[in-house]
Amino acid sequence: MKNALSKLALYHEKNVVEAGCDEAGRGCLAGPVVAAAVILPPKFKHPFLNDSKQLTEKRRDELRPIIESEAVAWGVSIVSHTEIDDINILKASFVGMHRALDQLTTRPESILVDGNRFIPYQDIPYHCMIKGDGRFMSIAAASVLAKTHRDELMVKLHEAHPMYDWQKNKGYPTKAHREAIRLHGISPHHRKSFRLLPEQMTLDL
Question: Could you tell me if 148 and 66 are in contact, meaning their C-beta atoms sit under 8 angstroms apart?
């Protein structure tokens, strides 16, 4: 069923309690990956809800408290940069989604996952949805929570490490971020398993 105010579908299967899952920060050079799980009420509506990447920061910040207050249940989890280095970013994303699902106060009957891969969670059926954050409202809501919670964390980390300008780039590999790594070296929050600079061997890791 398409929401009348949104191009996104409210559910994948009718009369099934679905939890949407998504993450933010997979491609970053620094900071954690943050995952979220959201169960929306059966008649949830919002005209602006969409894939978080398609929304402005202002819109995401407006949506976050609405989602958190109106959701049947939601959870947000953090997987640290050290865990990412230990188990790799793909596994870290799945671990984050599992931890977010652990926080749900209502048990879902089905899980909708953004992307094409997932590690089964308990005995709950799941569906991998390519570009799901632009197709289903629960996944879009999870993408908004993951993105806003992660951005908030990176702004706080910026205060201790302003040379990397994380308040703007949020740890993503912008030209300015890479140049700051070149000039100042890496911080305690950089992912050592990632290619931080093209000439990786020159970095003192």
Answer: no
Q: How far apart are CA 116 and CA 91, in angstroms?
A: 13
Q: How far apart are CA 46 and CA 3, in angstroms?
A: 8
Over residues 107-117, the pLDDT tens digits come to: 999 999 999 99
CA dihedral 57, 11, 21, 52 (to 10 degrees): -10
Domains and CATH numbers, the chain: 18-155 (3.30.420.10)
The three-state DSSP-derived secondary structure of 105-164 is CCCCCEEEEECCCCCCCCCCCEEEECCHHHCEHHHHHHHHHHHHHHHHHHHHHHHHCHHH
Contact, 138 vs 9, CB < 8 A? no
The whole model's pTM is what? Answer: 0.92
